């Protein structure tokens, strides 16, 4: 494949919100959070109760991910409520999701290496 076609396929940047405050300003993320809450309620996987005086509270955090189609267009906005989340960004972790090398990325690197005659 020509290098220009590979660049064209991979030229997508999706910025996901890093906080609830950011996400709540965008209708698509609000809708995704509402759908997730409805799913939790329908499945009866979470029940809110009054806090017992001698117990600690389990924290929660919203995690946001944009799902893409094969053509890199946006498929859907995915919001998940993660229970027991107490880690702090930049202290306990850097990324919420593990990075995975995609075949397109490897193709770009190999094509670039061949173009500039890098040794692999």
TrEMBL record:
Q: Could you name the domain of life of the organism this protein comes from?
A: Eukaryota
Q: Where is the Reverse transcriptase Ty1/copia-type domain?
A: 43-120
Protein's organism: Cajanus cajan (Pigeon pea)
List the InterPro entries hit by this protein, alphabetically: RVT_2
List the protein's name.
Reverse transcriptase Ty1/copia-type domain-containing protein
